[in-house]
TrEMBL record:
Domain of life of the native organism: Eukaryota
Biological process terms in GO annotation: acute-phase response; innate immune response
Subunit relationships: Homopentamer. Pentaxin (or pentraxin) have a discoid arrangement of 5 non-covalently bound subunits.
Cofactor binding description: Binds 2 calcium ions per subunit.
The protein's name: Pentraxin family member
Cofactor(s) listed in the protein's UniProt record: Ca(2+)
Main location: secreted
Amino acid sequence: DLYRKVFVFRKDPSDAYVVLRAKLEQPLQNFTVCLRSYTDLTRPHSLFSYATKVQDNEILLFKPKPSEYRFYVGGKFVTFRIPEGRGDWEHVCASWESATGIAEFWLNGKPWPRKGLQRGYTVGAEAAILLGQEQDAFGGGFDVYNSFSGELADVYLWDAGLSPEKMRAAYQSLRLPPAVLAWKSLSYEVKGDVVVKSRLRE
């Protein structure tokens, strides 16, 4: 249970990462991924990387620069342009549904205009899920200049799209539906220089 805890990725650039283990029974037609990050990086960095043997960017949350997030599904991506942060925690949720190909992006509890992505696609279930590095091969192939440095917390993955109420609840750290990856019952393994610490502030 990592409630009120964070992963601190201490080095920049870094070869460290955290492996997450999800209980995924079948491929995903819908999903939502949420997390909180705190960093002063201005270079490109990966936040959440979900790779299968067929597709290294099966699901990827990537920040190429401070004013932009990229959300990948099945190797294709859409870009969400955001105001540059004021040096605070950023909470992001990205959700996708195969039937409509609608990609939703929420930043700090607010939805951005929806975009179209990979309609009819299915996300594979046998995945390597990593925080802190961007996979260019299944479970590896890292470029340190895409590595994350800073603090990560409140990582969740659901095999469903969340309602707007639940998206806001995730931002406010309220009660959430059962997830395939949940911060309060996370199965993880640290590889390299990552430290679990208490959160400094709310």
